[in-house]
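Co-fold these.
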Amino acid sequence: MRASRLRLCLLLCFPLLIAAQDLKQFEKKVTEFTLSNGMKFIVLERHDAPVVSFHTYVNAGSVDDPSGETGIAHMFEHMAFKGTETIGTKNYAAEKQALDAVEQAYTKLAAEQAKGARADAKRTAVLESGVKAAIAKAESYVDPNAYPRLIEENGGVGLNAQTGEDATEYFYSLPSNRVELWFSLESARFLHPVFREFYKERDVVREERRMRVDSDPGGQVMEALLATAFEAHPYRRPTSGWASDIMSLRVAAARAFFDKYYAPANITIAIAGDVNPRQMKLFAEKYFGRIPARPLPPPLHTVEPPQRGEKRVRIASDSQPLLEMVYKRPDQNDPDDPVFDVIAGILDSGRTGLLYTTLVRDRKIAMVAACDATFPGGRYPSLFLFYAAPSMGHTVEENEKALDEVIERLKTTKVDAVTLQRVKTKVRADLIRQLDSDSGMASQLTWYEVNYGDWRKMFTGLDDIDKVTADDVERVAQKYFVKEHRTVAYTVSKGEGK
Amino acid sequence: MRLLTAAILACGLIQAQDPAALKFPPLRPVHIPQVETYTMRNGIRVYLLENHELPLVNGLALVRTGGLFDPPDKIGLASLTGTVMRSGGTRAKSGDQLNEELENLAASVESSIGDTAGEVSFSTLSADTAQVLAAFRDVIREPAFRQDKIDLAKMQIRSAIARRNDNPNRIAAREFSRLIYGKNTPYGAQVEYDTVARITRDDLVAFYRRYYFPANVMLAVYGDFDSARMKAQLERLFGDWNDTQPPVPAFPKVERRPAPGVYVATKSDVDQTVFYVGQLGGELRDKDDPALEVMGDILGGGFASRLFKRVRTELGYAYDVSAGWSPAYNYPGTFEIAGSTKSASTADTLAVIRQEVRRLRTAEVSDEELRTAKETLLNSFVFNFDRPSKTLSRMLRYEYYGYPKDFIFQYQKAIAAVTKSDVLRVAKQYLDPAQFTIVAVGNPAEFGKPLASLGLPVHSLDITIPKPEAAEVTARRAIGR
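Predicted complex below.
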């Protein structure tokens, strides 16, 4: 249940190669079907061991959080582990009444709190204790953590979920004799979600934010970077939500988010492992077919306006220095998308990438220097990220200068044929290395299917990568790596940041 | 195992069922691949597992050595040796040449030395096996330890030292471990600017020579190859390696030296406390290990555990809280409870944790808790066999650490046999809350309730990083010699 921010470069620059006959072979093991409510399934058969992995990909993430309710996509993800009308409750009818009472009490409290400084302290205290009592009553019906417990005691492993900017994903693996358990549990939580223990979980989510952002200098720099690089587009907001928004989230908002974005046609599921596809289809119809069709959510209209000059943001910190630099880039369906992936391969790959050889190996000014071609998401126009952690005794300024030189080199010197081929070979080999992981494949199949409209892009995208030329690299670097369109975020010692 | 005729399941006539009501067919048996093993004349133990599913070959050399053998004044020597064995290149090629050659093939050869083992590994597309094996051989047999890469690796270590107090979680884990094992023992020792500065190229070469010799090496190869040809290749590459050294001594023993009390490290720029609570643990082979692991799971192993339920679900104090009896293969591991909470609930969270440990030692766990913990461990057992390579690497570890070949099945049986009274007995016998070490990293100014309210002695931990100046002088002197 983590709010993932930095999707690894490797994962994104996955586009593909492998010869056409490999795709043919692979296709034989894949079965696809779509239910009448619009929910899409991809089944990959692998019978090597009696295990199976499931991956549910919901095409909605923190970009879809309504204003003032940042963090609601992530909050709903947490609620999806709280159980159903039958799992996690001692008496659902009574619990439901108690949950409704919590909402009524909370609404009264919220109305008083909304008066701000004019709120009546005594009345607030009374209302607060009313909320507390209502919550205690509702909790008396709860069988805590029954939902995940059922998965764990059935041998489930890798149970987790993650909320990103673009999507929310739920996944785990089971022994293959228990596939029906997954169908039953997964369909139930997206048929009738139950918003139990919402306000306790809100505290947990607030703690999660403290851990990932508020207590972590890297998290602080990243958050400031995004909030500065984007002015209008919701990529500017943290996936975890702003602290004050989190503490005001309500059940009604989570329910509204679910109703709007968890429409069956907005969900894609991959099943990879020791399964019979015909049986999977029967189970899918039986369990997920119960979910009524709903319209797809409307598209996001906000378009980031053009950037009219370099932006810089400084974070005062007692920690060791960090530097992050981003350039605006188009979305993942732009024809130049594979070129960005190749550029990332040239810059950051093993010990031959330009960032490593220049900043780490030769100049020894960075402990780590890396990049990410598509950040923080890819559905909408996003960023190409450069990142450096200066080595001991070296500064952010030195590293920024060195990054500038590396970028300048991309714009003025054509990449040599050996390097270009190395990047392409690596992309192909990376795909082969992934093929024997059920969970990895289930994740990739959904990601390509949703983001490129066809899971086959995992293979055919290799052709796109193969077509990238040294001219393309130079052209794209010149077009997009321009100072006016970049944002630089870095730490400064406390006291210096004024 | 719950049974149901597969026929009903397959025909799909039944209606959507509530999860708790489901019955499952038996799991089909796992296939356990046959690993071929033999010993070369020079003493290298070889393990081969052919598998042609993907056009890949992977290999691992496991070497009996480790950071536990670092001289006290040169902590970091083993780790540095492991790094530069690869980065510093071989007699034939510089490290940078190796990087290019391997990455042009999308292949890798890597080397590292951890606390209790050294590893050199490779991974390649099967078409390039011969070329990559040759590089693998050279890194193992002829590392050149070029000075420029020693300097680079030392710079990286110094940078890591400078950053080691930036993350509260890492501080807490580190300080907990140092208190449990003793900071002046091989298990609690920590690399410092001084200890790195003292390490010279001669030290690396000597460390390498002492431990990297055929009789001290186990070699495993997995993937898309023909076994007969692979044997011939290995013979060609390693058959004439005849270095000898006296047998490597046993790893140092851990001394039980409790450090009871609360230890607070101040980090004023955070609004959350990271805590570690616990004591010295045991080895995986201990007779009571299965009962202790079940105990740890019930206390803090997953969503169903007592701590998760109380601290996260009921109190909302933490995002992460977990506990576990974490054995090591060949020395006592730790028992630890770890998590984080907002500064103001630090004392309350620690109090709840202590209550839960007390409860574990005074009353038997419920039937339901025992069943859940055991089923969790037993039903997920199949994932130990979901890839053939797991059988190979497990076999290697077992032989390296002197465990019986069928240990995993003995362990499975022992878990199945654990009873409620076993759990209570081991909790009483092994857990000693009076001696627990509690580490809290956070901002005491915002703790609200002071930690003294726990009724335990509170010590403050000095995590200041010793300055490198002294080290610079030493380094210059070393060069001057």
